[in-house]
C-alpha cells in the first residue's frame, strides 16, 4: 500500500470540515515516494477537462493544488490551463495521454470528468497506480463495470468519491428531504416520482473531418471505431462552443456507445436521492417495467439500426419496483425533481426548491436538532471535494461511495436495457443479474476495443 503523507493540520481542518470530527487528524494516503512537507496541500490532477472537468477543478482549488491535466483535445487542455493560471497564478503540466498522470509519484488523487465510456478504465488504472479517485457521475457504462470498480476499491483500499454532488450541496435541500422522511413527516412512503427531463433526437449527422487538436481515436478509446460526425450549427449556453449535433463533445450523452442518455445523466442525481430516501442504497429494484418510451431511431435486438443519429430515448415512463413494493416512477414528463408521496402527505424537492405542506409545517415544528447531520453521517461538508479530502484523511469512504452509487445506477442501467429490448425485466438484487433472460444479461457488460482494454 502507498505510504501515507501527513497533511498540515491547519490546512486539513480548513479543507475537510464536515466529516470525521477528531478522526480528521489522522494522516491521509498519499502516493509512495511523495514529499513529506508538513505544509503541503493534497496534489490533484484532472483527467477530462471540458465543462464538468473545469467545474470540479475550479471548486477544488480552495482545497488542493493541481499539478497535472490530461485531455485528448489540445484546445480544451490549453483553455483549461489558462483558466487555472488566471485563478491560481500557476499552470498544471498538460498531457494528451492520461497514463502519464498516473505514472507521477507526486499526484495524490485524480478527478475524472472524461465521457462515461472512459470512467471505468481510468478509475481502475488510477487506483492500481495508488491514487485516490473522484469520478463524475454516472460512474459506469454497464453494470459489470460497477462490480469491477467495487472490487478494485476493496483490493487497493483507495478512497473513491462519485460526483453526485446533490448529496452534499444545493443548500442541503436533498438532505433535508431525507430527514423529513426519516422523521415520519409524510408517514409511510407510497410512491416516489423522479422527473429527469426528456431529450430530443437529431437530424442525420454526416461524417466530417476531425477538428484540429482532437485525437479522435483516443477520444473513442474503449468504444467502437467510428467516424467523427458533426453539423455546422453550434451549441449555445452550457456546453457551448461545440457543434450542437455531433457524436463528440457534450452531445456524446445522446449515444448509448458513450453514455445512457437522460436516464443515466439526470437519473444518476434524482434516482440516487430517491433510493437513499427509501433506504435501498444496498439493494435495488426487483422489477423494471417500461410503461412507455420513444426512441429516435429504429432498433433491432437492442441496438440502433443507424449510426448517424442520436439513439438514446427522448421520452419515457419507467416503473421500478423497490423494496417493500414501493413504486419508483422515472419519467421524462413534469418538473425536474423528486416527488415523495406518503400516507400523511407529500412534498417535492429539486435544486431550486423544497416545497409542500410538510415543508411549510417546519416553521412551527422544526426537525430535531442534528437530523440533517444524521442523514449525512456527520457535519455537512462545505462542498463535495471537502468531503473527499476528509475521507482521504480518515481512509473511510466518502458520502458518495461506489457501492451505493452502483446500486442506484443499476436501476438506471436496467431501465435503459428494458427500453432497448422493449420488455419488462426481473432483477435479482442479490446475484445482481437479470432473471431468466440471457439476451438482457448480455447488456450487463461490453467488450473494450482492442488496444483500450483495462490494464490490470
Domain count: the total is 2
Number of helices: 15
Mean pLDDT: 92
Instruction: Please give the order of strands in the largest beta sheet.
Output: 15-14-13-7-12-11-8-16-17
Compute the number of strand runs.
17
Dominant shape: globular
Structure characterization notes:
By secondary structure, the protein is an alpha/beta fold. The chain has two domains: 9-168 and 381-401, Rossmann fold, CATH 3.40.50; 192-337 and 404-444, no CATH class. The chain is 30% helix and 17% strand. The chain is built from 15 helices and 17 strands. The protein has helices at 9-16, 52-60, 74-88, 99-102, 116-128, 143-156, 173-182, 216-220, 261-265, 267-277, 357-360, 371-376, 384-394, 402-421, 438-441, and strands at 43-47, 65-70, 93-95, 109-112, 132-135, 160-162, 189-195, 287-294, 299-300, 303-304, 315-322, 326-331, 337-342, 345-349, 354-355, 425-428, 433-434. Strands 15-14-13-7-12-11-8-16-17 form a nine-stranded mixed sheet. Strands 3-2-1-4-5-6 form a six-stranded parallel sheet, sandwiched between helices. Strand 4 (109-112), helix 5 and strand 5 form a beta-alpha-beta unit. Helix 1 packs across helix 13 (384-394). The longest helix is centred in the last third of the chain and has 20 residues, at 402-421. The chain is globular and about 60 Å long. Mean pLDDT is 92; it is low at 1-38. Keywords: Glycosidase, Hydrolase. It comes from Allorhodopirellula solitaria.
Amino acid at each position: 500500500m502507498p505510504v501515507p503523507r501527513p497533511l498540515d493540520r491547519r490546512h486539513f481542518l480548513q479543507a475537510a470540515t464536515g466529516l470525521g470530527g477528531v478522526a480528521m487528524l489522522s494522516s491521509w494516503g498519499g502516493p509512495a515516494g511523495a514529499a513529506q512537507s508538513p505544509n503541503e496541500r493534497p496534489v490533484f490532477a484532472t483527467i477530462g477537462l471540458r465543462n464538468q472537468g473545469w467545474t470540479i477543478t475550479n471548486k477544488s482549488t480552495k482545497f488542493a493544488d493541481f499539478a497535472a491535466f490530461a485531455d485528448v483535445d489540445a484546445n480544451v487542455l490549453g483553455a483549461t490551463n489558462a483558466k487555472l493560471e488566471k485563478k491560481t497564478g500557476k499552470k498544471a503540466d498538460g498531457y494528451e495521454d492520461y497514463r502519464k498522470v498516473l505514472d507521477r509519484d507526486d499526484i495524490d488523487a485524480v478527478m475524472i470528468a472524461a465521457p462515461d465510456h472512459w470512467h471505468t478504465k481510468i478509475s481502475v488504472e488510477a487506483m492500481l497506480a495508488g491514487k485516490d479517485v473522484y469520478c463524475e457521475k454516472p460512474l459506469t457504462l454497464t453494470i459489470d463495470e460497477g462490480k469491477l470498480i467495487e472490487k478494485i476499491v476493496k483490493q487497493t483500499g483507495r478512497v473513491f468519491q462519485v460526483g453526485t454532488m446533490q448529496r452534499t450541496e444545493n443548500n442541503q435541500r436533498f438532505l433535508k428531504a431525507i430527514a423529513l422522511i426519516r422523521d415520519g413527516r409524510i408517514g409511510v412512503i407510497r410512491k416516489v416520482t423522479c422527473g429527469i427531463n426528456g431529450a430530443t433526437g437529431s437530424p442525420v449527422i454526416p461524417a466530417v473531418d476531425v477538428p484540429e487538436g482532437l485525437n479522435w481515436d483516443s477520444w473513442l478509446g474503449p468504444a467502437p471505431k467510428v467516424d467523427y460526425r458533426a453539423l455546422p450549427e453550434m451549441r449555445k449556453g452550457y456546453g457551448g462552443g461545440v457543434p450542437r449535433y455531433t457524436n463528440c463533445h457534450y452531445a456524446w450523452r445522446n449515444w448509448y456507445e458513450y453514455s445512457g442518455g437522460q436516464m443515466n445523466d439526470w437519473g444518476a442525481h434524482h434516482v440516487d436521492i430517491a433510493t437513499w430516501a427509501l433506504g435501498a442504497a444496498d439493494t435495488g429494484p426487483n422489477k423494471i417495467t417500461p410503461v412507455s418510451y420513444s426512441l429516435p431511431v429504429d432498433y433491432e435486438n437492442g441496438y440502433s439500426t443507424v449510426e448517424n443519429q442520436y439513439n438514446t430515448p427522448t421520452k419515457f415512463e419507467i416503473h421500478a419496483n423497490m423494496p417493500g413494493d414501493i413504486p419508483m416512477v422515472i419519467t421524462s414528463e413534469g418538473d425536474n425533481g423528486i416527488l415523495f408521496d406518503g400516507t400523511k402527505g407529500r412534498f417535492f424537492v429539486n435544486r431550486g426548491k423544497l416545497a409542500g405542506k410538510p415543508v411549510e409545517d417546519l416553521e412551527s415544528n422544526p426537525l430535531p436538532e442534528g437530523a440533517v447531520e444524521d442523514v449525512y453521517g456527520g457535519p455537512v461538508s462545505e462542498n463535495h471535494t471537502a468531503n473527499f479530502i476528509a475521507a482521504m484523511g480518515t481512509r473511510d469512504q466518502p458520502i458518495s461511495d461506489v457501492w451505493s452509487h452502483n446500486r442506484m445506477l443499476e436501476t438506471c442501467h436496467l431501465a435503459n436495457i428494458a427500453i432497448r429490448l422493449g420488455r419488462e425485466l426481473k432483477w435479482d438484487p442479490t446475484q445482481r443479474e437479470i432473471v431468466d433472460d440471457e439476451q438482457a444479461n448480455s447488456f450487463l457488460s461490453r467488450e473494450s476495443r482492442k488496444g483500450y482494454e483495462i490494464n490490470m
